[in-house]
Design brief:
The structure holds two protein chains of two kinds. Chain A is α+β, with helices and mostly antiparallel strands. Chain A has one helix at 20-29, and strands at 8-14, 33-40. A two-stranded parallel ribbon of chain A has the order 1-2. In chain A, strand 1, helix 1 (20-29) and strand 2 form a beta-alpha-beta unit. The longest helix of chain A has 10 residues, at 20-29. Chain A is elongated and about 35 Å long. In chain B, strand 6, helix 12 and strand 7 form a beta-alpha-beta unit. The longest helix of chain B has 25 residues, at 184-208. The interface between A and B is medium-sized, with 17 and 25 residues.
Amino acid sequence: MAILEGKKAIIIGDRDGVPGPAIAECVQTAGAEVVFSSTECFV
Amino acid sequence: MNSVIKGASYILAHTPDMVFYNGTTQTTEKIVNPESEYLKEVPNNLRTYEQAMKYWPNQTYIGNVHPEELAEVEFPWYDKNKEDADRYGKYGEIMPQEEFLLLVQASDMFDVVKLEKGFVAAHKEAFAADPIISEDIVARVQEGVELSEIEHFVNEEHAEGLYHDAKLVGCVKRAHDIDANLSAHVMHENLMSKATSVLALLYAVRNAGISKEDVEYVVDCAEEACGDMNQRGGGNFAKAAAEVAGLSNATGSDARGFCAAPTHAVIEAAALVKSGAYKCVVVTSGGCTAKLGMNGKDHLKKGLPILEDCLGGFAVVITENDGESAEIDLDMLGRHTVGTGSAPQAVIGSLVTSSLDKHGMKITDIDKYSPEMQNPDITKPAGAGDVPLANYKMIGALAVKRGELEKKDLATFPAQHGLTGWAPTQGHIPSGVPYIGFAAEDIKAGKIKNAMIIGKGSLFLGRMTNLFDGVSFVMHANTGAEEAQAGVSEEEVKGLIAKAMKDFAETLMAAE
């Protein structure tokens, strides 16, 4: 997961897939900084 | 005893002109890019009534095609017609735009809807010929006004135009000069929701085999808000629609919760009946004009016609246990709580497995799951994927994780325990509830033993919270007969007491 180390992440999660906060938890663990995170409804 | 699903209705109103004039994708484009190619192309890519009526997913929605039959139709569906399609289905109908506009006018209590005289004259007979439209509703249709009067309201008085075949045929006037909550735009949106709800209520009463007078309470679960500047979401759509539908013994209220609202409302209605508060409650909802043509840009880009051209509606009649209809088990509810969190495992766990665990059941013990039932013909070309399938993959993955499903069986889980989506992308309309009608019938017929209905809501869209929401309930075969067998009747209690007294008297006499 070194590819995310020190990177800034913009996260758009999917309500019927993986929501934003869950992705944020993961990318933070991998060393990225979350600059924006939201969950969207695509239907 | 649990309350039961006595009947359900599903209706569509084909409103192609509202796609262009009222769908937010198109109205937004008119503001930000009024000369766009997309706007020019929209009118050329709307479906005719015949095309929309013969569309396989629409025929499924009104009950002429079982979801299992739809799953057998080669995908995509937009380029295929169901040849023996019918306007009417066992759950409802697909009403043409011209007749629907008359129903809208009949549903208007404040004289804000004006239709052109010639338009009314041309379509009133067809409207009256619809078997579900009662005489009292036909009698509410006014003669109409001159086109010049309508043009005046649209051009000078901020009225919202009503169009048919791209011609101005009527308008919805504003209901107040300065109150934004009673503007023509809001009145239009709310009246369309109300009129589709009225149609759903009429079919629900018919399908349940009850009389209009039997309905004691109505819960509206749409996503619109009615009120004035002092109470923007005051309501009450439920009672307003019940009035037009002729449910004279009913009162009601509105339940809101984005797309999860219908499932919340069914649970609330089932609880109201089980508690004894009311004997017969109807959950109803009309459609949403804003979402018409929501994915239109992507559809046109991919060479599809605009598929989001119908307003949807549904209603579910919930009554006391009749000993035969499918039950709503209030002991098997799932709910996403404030503390649940957003990890997919936690979300599915709260909605699906929490109620199963309570009864020692496995995920595979539920025959059919009905989460978001959006039609993939609409969502896949727009990049949103197959939403029901995404939900089934999540549920199946959790089953594997819990050791209840072999990993090799994950691929067949969606077909075995799921359904292909068929509902229009009208927000709350596809959320869990489209399957209630089929599920109630299949359970009663012994084809399946149970089904879980799951409603999900995107609360974050209201910018009051970042939270998501969802609730679920389980429908299963009627257990009324078993409960009657297991229980002790009043007669039996009387018999036991009489025997005890007789025995006691005998011991007294023996003692003497």
